[in-house]
Amino acid sequence: MKRTSKQQVSSVAKKSVSFRYLIRVHIFALLSVALSFAHVGSAQASPLSDETSLRSPPSLSQVDRAKLPSHDSVRGSRIRDLIQDVDHNCLPIVDPIASFNPAFHSRAHHKLKQTLETVQNSELGAWLVGIAADQGVVVCLDKATNLEAHYRYHLRLIGLNAKLNAAGRVVFLAHELAHIPQHPKFSNDRRFSPMDMLLLQRMREAAAEAVATRVLWQLRDRNIPTPWREKLTTAYRDIAMEFAAEMAGNDHKDKELWATRAAFHQWFEAPWRTEIYDDLMLKTLSRITQDQAKQTPHSLQLSEEFLLDIANYAGQVFLIDGDGRTLIRDLRSRSLAERTRARLHEMTTAVRPMAQGAVLPSVKNKSLSAVSSNPTTKQKP
């Protein structure tokens, strides 16, 4: 409001104007307070709003659990090299999320906390958050990355692109959380041949995407549909659609596992997708090949039983042992570009030959009641 100050206004008039101005200021302040309370109420009602609801501060024992890596630690230093303003943009994952340290009060902290709380509305998502908390994983809003999200196992760090909207953060956090149980068992290992390492990379990504899709489906079933809708706008829409189609056409009690398996196999159907991750692995393999001092004989080979365990989440395995598909044969060669095949051959011959008879031990799993089916006809148990 602009105040007039003309010389002809009498002193009485000036006092009157000042009095009316003060009244309006007080009214505006009261309205602002009322609107702020109304906004907090709406934030509580919407699990995907960018604001956060107010909660009671956690107990001291809970506060002690929620700490960022120290500045002088190797891990803390490396995280700070990657993430801008770690203290304001990163949050240690604790379980339950409601027990986060009240010292984390920036806007980024509230966004991250709310994203984690939303994921926990899924039964599988809550299990993933618990695993992340047990391993001391930190999640950050990354302002420098060109990726939508990333997980760095050696740093126990999840980075989410700071430009993602609320639903997008849920979509990509679910995927990165799904990577956590895969390590260290299914991490890159120089003792594998280049072809086996490429297959492991494919398996990790396909499994994480399938599991994340199941998390979003469970949120949809719990009246939080926005992340699922967001997923349908991404380049991974086909995976979500395959999951939904399997759910619609399957009346088995474990149909979510069947749908997760369908989503997993759908990942391999897009050549552009396999080529992107194959190229990333080729770059990794190229660095390994050039590092003569650390070259290791290819002394390990993947087994079917070992690979099946990558599908083990919360004690449920979504890949069926004996379902007619050979993971190594079918998935390693699926959509494999000729240039990629040639580069893998070069890298394999550049390193000392693989030792004979060194196969990873079998890992027996009971999956989907350990039944067999014909995947070509989608026969149900």
Main pleated-sheet profile: 4 strands, mixed
Which parts are unreliable, with pLDDT below 50 for 5 consecutive residues or more? 1-47, 49-65, 362-381
SS strand fraction: 5-15%
Radius of gyration: 26 Å
Q: Round the mean pLDDT to the nearest integer and report it.
A: 79
Helices and strands, in N-to-C order? HHHHEHHEEEHHHHHHHEEHH
Helix content: 40-55%
Number of helices: 15
Number of domains: 2
Biggest β-sheet: strands ordered side by side in the sheet:
1-2-4-3
Number of strands: 6
The end-to-end distance, rounded to whole angstroms, is 73 Å
The coarse overall form would be globular
Query: What structural class results from the helix and strand content?
Result: mainly alpha
Explain this structure.
This protein is mainly alpha-helical and 381 residues long. The chain has 2 domains: 60-182, Zincin-like (2-Layer Sandwich); 194-370, no CATH class. It has helices at 11-45, 60-65, 74-82, 86-89, 107-119, 123-134, 166-179, 194-221, 226-231, 237-248, 255-267, 271-290, 304-308, 327-333, 338-350; strands spanning 90-92, 138-142, 149-152, 157-161, 312-313, 316-317. The chain has a 4-stranded mixed β-sheet with strand order 1-2-4-3. β5 (312-313) and β6 (316-317) form a beta hairpin. α7 packs across α8 and α10 (237-248) packs antiparallel against α11. It starts with 10 loop residues before the first helix and ends in a 31-residue tail after the last helix. The relative contact order is 0.08.
